[in-house]
Amino acid sequence: MKPLTNLAESKPHYEILDGLRGVAAVVVVFFHVLEVYSGGDHARQIINHGYLAVDFFFLLSGYVIGYAYDDRWGKMTLKDFFKRRLVRLQPMIIIGSLIGAALFYFQDSPGLGWGGIHEVPFPEMLLVMLIGFTLIPVGKGLDIRGWNEMHPLNGPAWSLFYEYIANILYALVLRRLSKAILGFLVIVAAGFTIHYALTNPNGDIIGGWSVDDPSQLQIGFIRLAFPFLAGLLLARIGRLRYTKNAFLSCSVLLVVLFSIPRLGGTDHLWMNGLYECFCLLIMFPLIVWLGAGGKVKGKKAAGVCKFLGDISYPIYITHFPIVYVYMAWVTNNEYTLGETWAYGLLVVIISITVAYLAMRFYDLPVRKWLRKLFL
């Protein structure tokens, strides 16, 4: 078997999809920064449906995995695939856990239920950090923040836990399925999504970050199943139509979908669930289809897409420890959005800067070294 040099990297990137991933990642940062002002009330959350960006990421992941690897299995072993995915994802998981550990003791906040952070023994925090390097979830015994997260130092790492599960299922099973069988599974997964969105007591599909609560695991797998499978199916269909100004139109559409206020109130929860089904089952696949069929014209537009694509994963996996500090500061001082919006914007800028620096001076060099060492 020939050495697999630049296997997935040898294919051209979908520049617009890279850019859209970055747009969604920046929306997630704004969503988390503004979350502290909602008081835990989903109806008051600004950029109300920003959490759906995670589902959009799963869809993009399915599409890109299918595009990059579906036709490579005659030349590639399971070991080759898993090494490539580890090299791509694992370095930033480690830096995210390190940043979470470095900022942990600056996040003490009784108002957020984190009043005992200063009492957490340093060795226990280090243990959680080391476990975070592996992406293995922790249970209640190591829930040092008290929010019942599987990764207390860096909450968003929960979605990478499911990302790895999706990659394993793809390599072992999903890559072997015909388009017909995959399409059937997409329909089944859509049915589970619709049922949960319309019947759950919260009127949304928020969740998936805990391993101690079976309902949270259920939400996590429901959120993973449809978008990842649908992304694979879209990649295999491959019938793309050229879309003029695809990046701009798809970006605006994404931001609008994420920003729609919560629908239905407490009396008609199903209305919000129906809207989320509309986003997940119709609009997100449409946006990916349009984005994959578009072309970037001009160096500036290409540069914007590349920058957003480059920082998309780093900003997602590093921003929340910074936001934790901001949440604690706002809550401890009972600040309002009107008093602190400029500082919130500064947190977004800092998060983007940290992500870029982590990507430029850590992720790229480390991945280059790992590729030379293992690939």
List descriptors.
11 helices, single chain, globular, 375 residues, mainly alpha, disordered N terminus, 67% helix
Principal-axis shape equals: globular
Specify the helix fraction band.
Answer: 55-70%
Quickly give the structural class.
Answer: mainly alpha
| Residue runs with pLDDT of under 50 for 5 or more positions | 1-8
Instruction: Count every helix, treating DSSP H or I runs of 4 or more residues as helices.
Output: 11
Largest sheet: none
Topology pattern, helix = H, strand = E:
HHHHHHHHHHH
User: What's the overall average pLDDT, rounded?
Assistant: 94
Could you tell me the number of beta strands?
0
Bin the strand percentage. Answer: under 5%
**Distance from first to last alpha carbon:** 13 Å
CA-based gyration radius: 20 Å
Provide an overview of this structure.
It is globular, with a radius of gyration of 20 Å. 67% of the residues lie in helices and 0% in strands. It is an all-alpha fold and 375 residues long. It has eleven helices and no strands. The N terminus is likely disordered. The longest helix has 38 residues.
